[in-house]
Specification:
Layout: E1 2-10, E2 20-29, E3 34-39, H1 45-52, E4 62-65, E5 68-69, H2 74-80, E6 81-84, H3 97-106, H4 112-125, H5 141-155, E7 159-163, H6 171-186, E8 190-194, E9 206-211, E10 214-216, H7 230-240, E11 248-257, E12 260-270, E13 275-279, H8 286-293, E14 301-306, E15 309-310, H9 316-322, E16 323-326, H10 339-349, H11 354-368, H12 372-375, H13 385-399, E17 403-407, H14 415-430, E18 434-438, E19 449-454, E20 457-462
Length: 467
């Protein structure tokens, strides 16, 4: 059993009273048990996971694994507890999936033949054996997460801590995860799943909520939508006011990675004020499409015309005023050391004065639910993944683009955060901004238009409710 007793974690602070993130947490995970840990972004779920895996050592409270304190025998703890990181880039170090999975096994000093056999078996369990020798950088984020999971499976620990293993998973990936969790339970492994998805409730033994520093099994208050106040609405009107109309025409757009076509013959038109939801299974070309729409890549054939100019040919300074893209993995676009620096970088590059930049940054933080005064000096790399996503959205909003594209951003947020962001996006659209949202899961009653992609092709373009 993993037993957490009285765990306290305080955030470092220059003030006299640092904020307590984990406040006398008690939690246990037994062998053969599957526990779901839920909570809002920034509530401390990932921090708690790192304590349970022995990556952080307690200064207040205690953590034991089968009676062994985590601060007394770290090597044994890490043999018994496998942690799947929330972000796969923190876990993957090799060039191919097979090399990466084998790396951890090499530390066990197993014979090379045993290492290869276990690595192949682990990749088969996550349905990636066919891509075992493929360069990792060519895999989708969902596939990279499965490579990291295979690395944990190959080590065969007694306990599995899976930190948002489903964030980038489509329905097929979610079914694969569920089958694996059921196998692990049958093998008498202890499993802690950290997730925002309600899907897991009926497949686990217990649900624990982390809220305001406390762990409970009673559940948080219900998720409620929000409305924008008058001052925020007026600022939105200013932010969305376009100095001139625009038109985006996509003509027979195709893109290939080496010889593999990721997008094939896509054509569409986008007009101001549309709210378009883009969906489809993993690997269907959604991310490739939005990167081309934002001018971040040159098409293999076809074109994306912003008015009458290919968007990839526009100067970067002009292009970012046309389209703001929030990446699927927000850490990739956060360059500033602090939240304040991150928000001001793009504004200063646009020639915005420091005083106006501060005003825009403050408003953008407020719009996405970040407290500017509390967070402005906080290191951006130490934010939770959900907070990083909010920051990336804020950075784009501060630039006031005509078109805002979010690539799987909703998947990084807890349910309340998703509801809040959708309210903001709908209001932005109502004020004239064009919004495109990529989502592997369907979003009900959202958007004026739906694009469904599969195999790199556009299967459907029309009203969401008709589909």
């Amino acid at each position: 059993m993993i037993a957490v007793r009285g765990l306290v974690h305080r955030l470092s602070s220059s003030g006299l009273h640092p904020r307590v993130l984990l406040n006398h947490i008690d939690l246990a995970v037994e062998r053969g048990e599957v526990v779901l840990l839920m909570g809002r972004n920034g509530s401390g779920k990932t921090t708690l996971a790192r304590y349970m895996a022995g990556l952080l050592l307690p200064t207040e409270g205690s953590i034991t694994v089968d009676g062994i304190p985590t601060d007394q025998n770290p090597r044994e703890i890490r043999r018994r507890v496998g942690l799947l990181f929330q972000e796969s880039h923190e876990q993957l170090i090799a060039q191919t999936p097979l090399e990466d999975v084998a790396f951890g096994l090499e530390n066990l000093t197993l014979p090379p033949s045993h290492i290869q056999k276990r690595a192949w078996q682990a990749l088969e369990r996550v349905s990636l054996a066919k891509k075992a020798l493929c360069p990792i950088e060519r895999l989708t984020p969902a596939e990279r997460q499965r490579v990291a999971l295979a690395g944990v499976l190959a080590m065969n620990p007694d306990y599995y801590i899976l930190d948002e293993p489903d964030r980038t998973a489509d329905q097929e990936g979610l079914a694969l995860l569920l089958a694996l969790v059921r196998q692990l339970r049958a093998e008498q492994k202890g499993v802690l799943i950290i997730s925002h998805k309600e899907f897991w409730r009926k497949h686990v033994d217990r649900v624990v909520y982390l809220e305001h520093g406390k762990a409970t099994e009673t559940g948080p208050a219900g998720v409620r939508g929000s409305q924008l106040g008058g001052s925020r609405r007026r600022e939105l009107e200013r932010a969305c006011r376009s100095p001139s109309p625009f038109r985006v025409r996509v003509r027979d757009l195709s893109f290939a990675y080496d010889t593999v076509l990721a997008l094939k013959g896509f054509s569409a038109e986008i007009t101001p004020g549309e709210f378009i939801v883009i969906t489809g299974p993993a690997g269907s070309g959604k991310t490739t499409l939005v990167e081309l729409l934002a001018g971040l890549a040159r098409p293999t054939s076809g074109c994306v015309l912003w008015n009458d100019t290919p968007i990839h040919a526009l100067p970067a300074k002009e292009r970012v005023r046309c389209v703001g893209l929030v990446f699927q993995e927000p850490y990739q676009q956060l360059l500033g050391e602090s939240v304040r620096e991150e928000l001001l970088l793009g504004l200063i590059a646009q020639g915005i004065s420091l005083s106006e930049g501060e005003q825009r940054a403050r408003w953008a933080c407020q719009a996405v639910g970040l407290d500017w005064e509390l967070i402005k000096e906080h290191p951006s790399h130490r934010l939770s993944v959900g907070e990083q996503a909010r920051l990336a959205v804020a950075a784009m909003l501060a630039l006031r683009p005509h078109m805002l594209i979010l690539d799987e951003t909703l998947a990084t947020l807890d349910p309340a955060g998703q509801a809040e962001l959708l309210v903001l996006l709908q209001e932005l659209c109502a004020q004239g901004m064009t919004v495109l949202v990529v989502a592997s899961e369907s979003i009900s009653d959202v958007g004026s238009r739906l694009w469904v992609l599969e195999g790199g092709r556009l299967l459907y373009d029309g009203p969401p409710r008709i589909l």
